Queue: 2 jobs
Job 1
Amino acid sequence: MQIVSFLFERHIEKTVLAVAVIISVVLLTRPDDSTVAAGRVISSYLLYPVDQAGRYIGSLEELREENRRLRRLVVSLNHEKELLLQFREERNRLRELLGFRRDGFWEFLPCEVIARSSSRYHSSITLDRGADAGVRPGMPVVGYRGLVGRVTQVFPSSSRALLLNNKSVQVSCLVKRSRVVGVLGWERGNLFRLDFVGREEDIHPGDTLVTSGLGRVFPKGFPVGTVFQVTADKTELSRRIGVVSMTDLNRLEEVFIITGGREWESGEIWLELQELDRSGASGPARGGSGE
Amino acid sequence: MRFILRIVLAALVVFVLQVTVAHRLAVIGAVPDLVLVLLAVLVIDRGPVIGVVAGFLLGFLQDLGNAELLGMNALAKSVVGYGIARFGGDYLPDNPLFRGLLVFAAALANDVIVLNISRSFDAADVVTTFLRSSLLSGIYTAVLAVVVIQVVRLLPGRVVRPGGRY
């Protein structure tokens, strides 16, 4: 009784602080169990409607203009895609002749960023697609320009992705031009460094880095960043290589989760263009259909 | 009971604003810590016990919105809530300048704790990040807190105690 009186009557302030600190430390050291996961689900439900309402009110005119711009872009890209498909088919035929596996296409699930990390030192984003849309932990997340991160937590209608600008994330990359392999790690902002590259390797400022696919954490061939600095390391054994990311990781609004691969279905372009025509696209759509 | 309800409601609103709007308010890359602003408004003259409890609840809610390290913000905000309530209530004169300095110090203390935990006590990394982003964010948060506290004091129905406290 004397101890209780000492703690809760004479030193109530320090006792409450000590209790809060102890609970926090316990939380920091215990694994992410189902109770904690439930709390995270509630917070994700809370964010979704608020963000959606704000976006709807603020972006109607912006969406109309973006829609017009994207329609023009779709027509042009479809034309280009058809040409590339012909090259791909040719490439696949040659690969088959050599006994390699056929290339597939990635399935992209478009998502909107509904929240960012509430901490300034943990770069993660909350996306508006979750388990209901087939999202699973570990799926890669890409932006319009390249890789941005990986899904770490999945809730029924949302998910959370850890971005590349995080100390705990490292990506195996290769230089697109010379195929030199290194490991990419975050430094600050949108700047990264490429480690484990020997001093004699062929790498220059301006080179593009793409994912290597090694370890199968991230799929091969997605752009990650551009080399902007190559200097000698103190040890003289390797080089210090500065890389700036392709995507501005602090300004993500729309991203795509790679949910899997598939074979391309013939006639798909034609169906897409027909759909575009029905929704009021202009004349050049027919011209780019490859009839 | 009304005070706790008010904390919960305000915490939910501020939490949503922190993760959806705060990054759009960035000035020269500095993002304000809206949760800390709310904590300062709530506890600056409520006493250390309320400071710790409110700090812990707000920090825990913030942790739920993060991808990892549950308990990090709860720990930081508990300690900071205690400090704000202790020094804001008893030791500092009741004027905007001192309130701003108090919140600035609280923001820096918060960042020191959070950075050390999130960077696994890597001193070089902590110091670099602290100098690069915490100082500016701390100033931004302090200015915002002073403005919000002044606005809250002007709201109708506030009972202002002697010395300007409510």
Job 2
Amino acid sequence: MKWMMKKCLLSGGMLLLLLSLPLIPSAQAVTKSEDIATTIILRGQPCGGNTVRGISEIKDAAGNTVIKATCPNGQRYRLDISSDGRVSVTPLR
Amino acid sequence: MRNVGMLRISEITGFLWLVALFCLFFQMPAHAFACEGKSGVTLSSSTAMDKSGSAKKAVHPELLRDKTVFVPEQKKALPDSDVAEALRTPRFDMDVLISRLKKSDAIGMFTKLALRSDALDLMGLVKAWRRHVSKLTLEEVRSRYNGLLLKLLALLDDDPALSRDISLARESIWKSLMEVKT
């Protein structure tokens, strides 16, 4: 009887766990830090990791955005995003 | 009597466990946590693709609205050579692919803008090649296109359905890029 109860509880527990699987998100949205690091890498610049730190963002009246961030390898980069959506990456000294 | 009742509960739970396991293992590659219902409506786009014969019947109307679903041409409507050609190069809707790419959470906003810049540069190269202004050959332009597509597919690692559809539409995208009028 006890063995049967244990078996039933175990099966029920596993079933609950299985049914809760779809509730767990499969992929999380990319963070801003990861996004900037990916953009730097995509432009062929070395970054040394997939996240950046020390992000500063300035947007001017014309709609151009300047982002400055530091990669894990210590290199600081400047990302220029023009109002028409063009992206360029330049390393800072 | 209680033992018998407990046995039935155990059997039912075990059966449910097996059904759930079956659903999980056989439907997970389609990125849908649901099995095919009795009505014949398939809830995953990839399953719909596999059933080429009854593709129109199997595709859910919501999927047709939201996603690009490749539907091979009907055999009766076209000659054999056209059918073979249609099967080789599946139909795709560029606008739907672009909209799915914009909505995808697998790529961040800045990365999407960077990819857009690359795509615009590539279109500029194609235009220059067509006008005989560029020194690049068609093979070099094609290799740039392949490189850009490779980057995109690598970035879409967390959105395998979109990655697969773009990969399938590779040749069609190239053809449409070549057909762009200046």
